[in-house]
Amino acid sequence: MLEKERKFFEQHRLEWMENSPGKFVLVKDEELIGTFETLQAALSEGARRFGTESFLVRQVDEAEQLVYLPALTLGILRANSTHSV
């Protein structure tokens, strides 16, 4: 999901960092729909234009990041919920 959008983002990220540092981009397919000052503004425009279709919103300074989930690592997500912690 969003493979085209992610690829397009990575292809243009350095350009956008130079022209729009700190802004949020809204990408649909292989098209930059717009740049926005806030995440909320980008998400609102994406929802208005595309409804329930998928689209990508990402800050231009942001690279692809790994997500670290300590709860999963510590086994908390597998904890027995009938016992208090």
Strand content: 15-25%
Tell me roughly what share of residues is in helical segments: 25-40%
Mean pLDDT: 81
Oligomer: single chain
Silhouette: globular
- Cα-atom radius of gyration: 17 Å
Unreliable residue stretches = 65-69
Strand count? 3
How would you describe the overall organization of this protein?
By secondary structure, this protein is an alpha+beta fold. It has one domain. Helices cover 39% and strands 18% of the residues. The chain is built from 3 helices and 3 strands, in the order H-E-E-H-E-H. Strands 2-1-3 form a 3-stranded antiparallel beta sheet, with helices on both faces. The protein is globular and about 30 Å long. Mean pLDDT is 81; it is low at 65-69.
Question: Can you give me a brief rundown of this structure?
Answer:
By secondary structure, the chain is of the alpha+beta class. Helices cover 39% and strands 18% of the residues.
